[in-house]
């Protein structure tokens, strides 16, 4: 599912361009998918992304990688491909705006531009495809992967400051620039342009969507209705499922995957098979819920037992080969189970309910009280909504009011502890993603939703299952995300439960055992036993590893945390898994770079500082 785009200024760098294309083809990993004047696209894998030229009467102006749909049609509950005609004319930035505001999908678009202007690169707001860029010998390379060799960036090296930041805040692995110097990361919803790609124009951000929705709340129509949510999700599911002969759906037993499975069934496009993973602990066995959903969707359910496993270097190595440390591939049995289910039904696509917790708002329940007390819109009695939050969080109204007044999360609640830990990480290393900046006019609960949305970018990471099938997360596509951001948090999640708006929108379609469920699966005991079984490996791997040598981990702290007694009484799984994942990533990239072409900085895009932003575009885009 990877891609490489190469382009160069007219009349220059043609020899280097040809050498790069030839070497990539000769390696046997990449296949030439498209070539035109000043432009080449290569793809890899059995499920190569779609490649569509951006062309007109004057020839080829660029290329679009991925899938893209018409937004107006989706808003009507229908499906149509986006129109690309005319994108070759005029200013590429105007074409980017048209794509962002009039279409949606998982894509990256590039315009080769005039020689003096340089190329223009757009990454879609969902961030479904990784977009890394660099220049070498006047050739601009844009890719889903960090390459080495003739087409790779000069000056590629490990950025230890970013490694430390990722260690402090593992969620930043998916959000911040990769911890490699020499790469430029294009953020979702933004454009990089200019001769050296130093200019950045932000066209879309979650905060801008929230602010735009607030301006509409005073109007009679207000926020989207439950019927509009259902219609939009159904339309997105149909668009993403079209042309697939067989579809596998993961049914976890929770609300979000149930919505996707029954939406597929309602569309008549699937699912053709379903899979559920369960553990031996009662709280981690959701088969009864998953079976009810499968029965309602009319699909056979394949159940897979997941026993605790031992982490090894080979397990960690699978998540170390990408430009970003991958925390989404730490369970090899999960990948194996998905791949076996795909093989059994002949499917090449997997649908999930990933992102529903964020979009439907099953996060930071105490933040709802802050919004309610500060005047955020709600349905029904404000006092009653506050009482429901108090019962849900098992706290008094006075405690919630005090938190609102002081602006400090309570230490006496799980929500508060999570929010305090996040605040401490931000004080240590700053916001981990540009989406978490410029939040003026965004309520407290919506800020938590935006942070969770940024963290969900990890769902697009490189995994074994993603190399075997197209992974589809309908609840993280742009129309659905924008709808979730546009609905006030106290409306999304009212009552003593959570995700009430979505429950009501799909209530007649779902089994009552799902709509009435208030518990959630918990794999913490499973992970604890896995870590305990792997303690000897972690001890040797971390205490004498590269992170320890660089002074990035506290040997004494990890030695104590890996003692059997400590693993029983203190949950240090986050810190242990983060350190082990980064240790494997560092070892892989040090080994890979040691055999690459000698490091030479000339010609590379150099980003100063640990996470330095380029100069802002002089041509500010009006964000949506």
From TrEMBL:
Pfam families linked to this entry: Asn_synthase
Chain coiled-coil ranges: none
One biological process term in Gene Ontology: asparagine biosynthetic process
The name this protein goes by in its record: Lasso peptide isopeptide bond-forming cyclase
Domain of life, per lineage: Bacteria
Gene3D superfamilies registered for this protein in UniProt: HUPs (3.40.50.620)
InterPro entries found in the cross-reference section: Asn_synthase (IPR001962), Rossmann-like_a/b/a_fold (IPR014729)
Domain Asparagine synthetase, chain residue ranges per copy: 229-587
GO molecular function: asparagine synthase (glutamine-hydrolyzing) activity
